[in-house]
Amino acid sequence: MKITKLNKNAAAIMVNRYSLRDESGHPVESPAEILMRTSRVVAEAENNYRSSGDTAMEVREKFFEMLYEMRFVPNGRTMANAGTKYGQLANCFVLPVEDDLGKGTDSIFSVLRKAILTLQTGGGVGFSFGRIRPKDATISTTKGKATGAVSFIKVYDTAFWVIGQGGGRRSAAMAVLPVWHPDILEFIRCKATEGQITNFNISVGLTDEFMKAVKNNDDFTLRHPENGEMYRMIPARELFAEIVKYAHKNGEPGVLFLDEANRSNPVPHLYKLEATNPCGEQFLGPYENCCLGSLNLREHVKKIKGDGYQVDWEKLAETVNLSVRFLDNVVDANKYVSAVPEIEEAAHKVRRIGLSVMGLSDMMYMTGVRYGSTKGQELASQIMEFIRYHSMMASIELAHVRGPFPGINGSIYDPQNVVWTIPKPLVAHKSDFGRPEISWKKLLVELKKYGIRNGAQTTVAPTGSIATISGLEGYGCEPVFALSYTRHTREGAEKEGKEWREMYYESSLFEMAMKKAGMPKSERNKLFEKVRENGGSLKGIKDVPKEIAEVYVVSSDLSVEEHVRMQAVMQKWIDNSISKTVNFPPEAKPEDVAKAYQLGWELGLKGMTVYVEGSREQVVLEKKSGPYETKQDKQVTSEEL
């Protein structure tokens, strides 16, 4: 087993976020002990099934080895809560909200209670407020006027802020409003001032009908949620311009393409998809949750003859297979939220898992492929196809041994009537990256024979913290933010009397590339100073060999179209959605954002987040110019925590 050495930042974040604590609140586990505890709890689910070759103890050892080598890292709640009194292992939830103050189980204040109980376990929750009657609508029972969807979002936000004051993980939520809702303009503007509704991300649920109306410059119908009757007409481009205006201003609202999401809904007989988790990568039905985990692509490259690296496809297939088993076990090992039994029922009915990736840009740096280029788009597509294929094959094999998910009859995977179709790539797969053959026809035969264990298999999460503890330079499927940057974190900040603390990063892969090119240490230090003064990019810096400068691109080097197309080529193979930010330069205009949204819809994205550089005061990652002498001094260590 390869020995994993965590750097100071990684160890500090891992211990502070995921370790068990003593009565005084001090961490009591090392990183290895955290991973061993997680592996043990998840492997115990093996005892629920007849033996498939390995004992629970043997599976535990395999899980631990995979986690210890950082080939796969589960979501934060799995590591933090495994073996605790909560035992709630999922990060993502969606709860339904009906237009009823308190009588029904899904009424506004009944769901608020359920949401608070869920947030207390560390989960993030998404809601669609599309069923709430519009502002100023008549209330028949009281003869009064309704306050509208945004008023209840503010009520939820205040409640989440109050419980957040009690310590623990900050509440994270997503509010979605469909574009046809009469309150849509108020919703779009509700976070216009930074600092308002701080516990929610907000997204507009766009429809094909609306996007076509924008394209054709037609009017669009706003409708009553209760009966679908026309409320009023509005020029589609006028409404679209408002969405674009505020997204350009500070990144919100995001957009979700609801019809595209529902075209690949695995269980359309159970529900329509209306909302996502807070980061937007998980469309979920009412009360559904999802356990996530990410493949570390940087750990799936191998040296080749000569001087370079290529994707280690065999190792990747092996890790995907074991990761699917791990995540399926989490569905059983999870204790859920005992006061909200609907959550466990929904989880077991569809058995969703979310196998994600992180370090895609690290892999591209190492293999010499420019992120965003035509070749980069093809490599991303080939990787995601490979992962989707092997995740489905692993889930089908689990169905053979353990049985398919209970809600399979009537789903797109129903063995008696399979309507799922083999995805097609957005870009042609022409290049030889050394990938082994895969057989979708064979998979289809097995699917019809055994069904599938998990109603959904793949996603791409943002992976901020788990990518950091894995030592990665690229989070999720994102390009590297900058070759040198500052990360703002809450780790260790309280001891300094601050809300945030700074951690400092430089690209080790870029430094190794320059070292290999013969640049001495003193010159590399000077080069990093230039990079910082240049916003973290090599663009315009003359001291770097052309072949290195072409590969080591960062987010700001990519065109908007490259950002969108990279997301689109991956989305073709991801059965849920993708959390990715389309970055714009400071001089970007609102019409640039509008073009990106149109392109994303046309290419089949399920959701989009945009960010114009400099449009927000509070950011997690920041480009820093000037002196960097505090790099070692200010890195947080586990001893300091």
What does this structure look like?
The chain has 641 residues and is of the alpha/beta class. The protein is built from 22 helices and 21 strands. The strands form six sheets. Strands 1, 2, 3, 6, 7, 10, 13, 16, 19 and 20 form a ten-stranded mixed beta sheet that branches. Mean pLDDT is 92; it is low at 626-641.
Tally of strands: 21
Amino- and carboxy-terminal Cα gap: 29 Å
Helical fraction equals 25-40%
How much of the sequence lies in strands comes to 5-15%
Q: What is the gyration radius calculated from CA atoms?
A: 24 Å
The number of helical elements comes to 22
Mean pLDDT: 92
* Low-confidence segments: 626-641
* Overall 3D form: globular
Q: Secondary-structure blueprint of this entry?
A:
Layout: H1 8-18, H2 31-43, H3 56-68, E1 72-74, H4 76-81, E2 92-94, H5 108-119, E3 124-128, E4 138-139, E5 144-145, H6 149-164, E6 173-178, H7 184-189, E7 200-206, H8 208-216, E8 219-223, E9 230-235, H9 236-250, E10 254-257, H10 258-263, E11 275-276, E12 283-284, E13 289-296, E14 301-304, E15 308-311, H11 313-333, H12 341-350, E16 353-358, H13 360-367, H14 374-402, H15 440-450, H16 464-469, E17 484-489, E18 501-506, H17 508-516, H18 521-533, H19 546-551, H20 560-571, E19 581-584, H21 590-603, E20 607-612, E21 621-622, H22 631-634
Parallel strand pairs: 2-3, 3-6, 6-7, 7-10, 13-16, 19-20
Antiparallel strand pairs: 1-13, 2-13, 4-5, 8-9, 10-20, 11-12, 14-15, 17-18, 17-21
